[in-house]
Amino acid sequence: MPTASRRRSAPSTSPASLSRCCSCKAARDKLADLGILKPVVEGLGPKATLHEVEGGDHSFAVLKKSGRSNEEALTEVLDALTTWIGGLA
């Protein structure tokens, strides 16, 4: 597991070197802190897109109490990716 200081450091990615990037992130996924990820994506500008799946874990599975099924959460991810890919043309 990374140390606390390594988890807090943002990657040094130059917006000029980035072609295009779409990231789907589940809100309950503990592998990437949204507090760190959101500013990094915003700093990359319009070439980077972040889609957040509310209530999902690392595999986008949602809790039953969310009122959504895992299939609905995965459909949301696929819809976001389809829209993003459609914008590349």
Structure description:
- The chain is built from three helices and two strands.
- The protein is an alpha+beta fold and 89 residues long.
- Helix 2 (34-44) links the parallel strand 1 and strand 2.
- The protein has one domain.
- It has a two-stranded parallel sheet with strand order 1-2.
- It is flat, with a radius of gyration of 14 Å.
- It has helices at residues 4-8, 34-44, 70-86; strands at residues 21-26, 48-53.
Please name the defining characteristics of this protein.
about 90 residues, 3 helices, two-stranded parallel sheet
Blueprint (SSEs and pairs):
Layout: H1 4-8, E1 21-26, H2 34-44, E2 48-53, H3 70-86
Parallel strand pairs: 1-2
Q: So what's the overall shape? A: flat
Helix/strand class = alpha+beta
Helix content: 25-40%
Largest sheet: 2 strands, parallel
Strand order of the largest sheet: 1-2
Extract low-pLDDT stretches.
Answer: none
The overall average pLDDT, rounded, is: 85
Give the termini distance in whole angstroms.
Answer: 39 Å
* Radius of gyration, CA atoms, in whole angstroms: 14 Å
Count of β-strands: 2
Query: What is the H/E string?
Result: HEHEH
Short description:
The chain is of the alpha+beta class and 89 residues long. It has helices spanning 4-8, 34-44, 70-86, and strands at residues 21-26, 48-53.
